[in-house]
Amino acid sequence: MLTGRLLFGSGNGSLTIVQNRITAFWFKGKELALAFGLTLAFSRLGSILNFFLTQRFEAKFGMQWTLWGGALLCALGLMSAVVVSSLDKVGMRQLGLDGAIREESRKVRIGDVKRLSLRYWLLVLTIMFFYNGIFPFIADASKFVEDKYDNYTQREAAYVAGAVYDSSLVLSASAGVLIDYVGLRGIFAVACAVLTLPVFGLLAFTFVAPLVSTIWLGVTYSFAAASMWPSIPLVVPQATVGTAMGLATSVQMIGIGISNLVVGQILGTESSDSKIPLWRWQRMMIFMLANTVACIVTSSLLNVVDHRQGGTLNKLTKRSARAEREPDTEPLSRGEQAEDEDEDEPPSRSINS
């Protein structure tokens, strides 16, 4: 089972990176946030359908046929990937960009990672800290609801925990449309982090109905995903978008993995049936709060640095005159930009020629 999960995780992670790369290429300068929002919405739709259908399917047909059903879905995903890859190649060939993109990609070296801008790394840290408070919480949310609040069955607690995904399914596309229309991606990132603070505060220190907090978290999650991930192509060169997306995903997953380990130590139980003391749950929520505060700090620094470097992330609209005059990406280094300018100049002729 461990081998299967490792293989599935490696394939899923790589697929996410390629998917984000293709989305960023074809929708950059257009409805980029909407495209990422729709991608997130369909991803959450899969999570919700899995949540509602898998257990019933397994109860009716057994575990073996359930696993074969999962294999069938993976096969459908493979077919879809082949179709998308073909369309991507045909589209780039029609635009005459296949050779240029291939040539630019060859120029990218591993050492260039060190030259990625400060804005990029602050954005990566912002994403990591925000997701550190989302996925580890969702993993234990149903158990938390059962232990802290009275009169919740296991199924009802699971429904409350799943409200995060329900909210993001409904709002992700709308959030993308709004961000594409308004801009202000950096401001949205800070606002989402700030508005997430009350979620864990309510869960840690009050007995307000948990459904309020999970729906609230789903709303901030939708806007955060639609503002943070589409910002990456705006702060890195086109040829390095895939590398940048991959690095961001890796850092995000490392952060989530470490957070899960920390949460496991805080909760300190090996049995899912035993009730966990409320003080342990409170410490877990405080840890979530700490990650959210760190997200606020990094996103605030991101806005400061972005303002000093031209304000790419916080342009009011994608159709502004400034957006047309200035490039949406920045070179890996000023030295590399100077080299490109030198290459554009005609070679000097010798007086002896």
UniProtKB/TrEMBL annotation:
User: Where do Basic and acidic residues bias regions lie?
Assistant: 321-337
Q: Which InterPro entries match?
A: MFS, MFS_dom, MFS_trans_sf, MFSD1
Per its UniProt entry, which superkingdom is the organism in? Eukaryota
Pfam families noted in UniProt: MFS_1
Question: Gene3D superfamilies annotated for this entry?
Answer: MFS general substrate transporter like domains
**Keyword annotations of the record:** Membrane, Transmembrane, Transmembrane helix
Can you list the GO cellular component terms from the UniProt entry?
membrane
Q: What is its main location?
A: membrane
Listed under catalytic activity are: L-alanyl-L-lysine(out) = L-alanyl-L-lysine(in); L-lysyl-L-alanine(out) = L-lysyl-L-alanine(in); L-alpha-aminoacyl-L-histidine(out) = L-alpha-aminoacyl-L-histidine(in); L-lysyl-L-lysine(out) = L-lysyl-L-lysine(in)
Ranges annotated as spanning the membrane: 32-53, 65-87, 118-138, 158-179, 186-209, 215-236, 243-264, 284-305
Give me the ranges of the annotated region Disordered.
315-353
Membrane topology classification: Multi-pass membrane protein
Question: What function does the entry list?
Answer: Lysosomal dipeptide uniporter that selectively exports lysine, arginine or histidine-containing dipeptides with a net positive charge from the lysosome lumen into the cytosol. Could play a role in a specific type of protein O-glycosylation indirectly regulating macrophages migration and tissue invasion. Also essential for liver homeostasis.
According to the record's subunit comment, the protein's assembly and interactions are:
Homodimer. Interacts with lysosomal protein GLMP (via lumenal domain); the interaction starts while both proteins are still in the endoplasmic reticulum and is required for stabilization of MFSD1 in lysosomes but has no direct effect on its targeting to lysosomes or transporter activity.
What protein name does the entry list? Lysosomal dipeptide transporter MFSD1
- Annotated organism of origin: Hippocampus comes (Tiger tail seahorse)
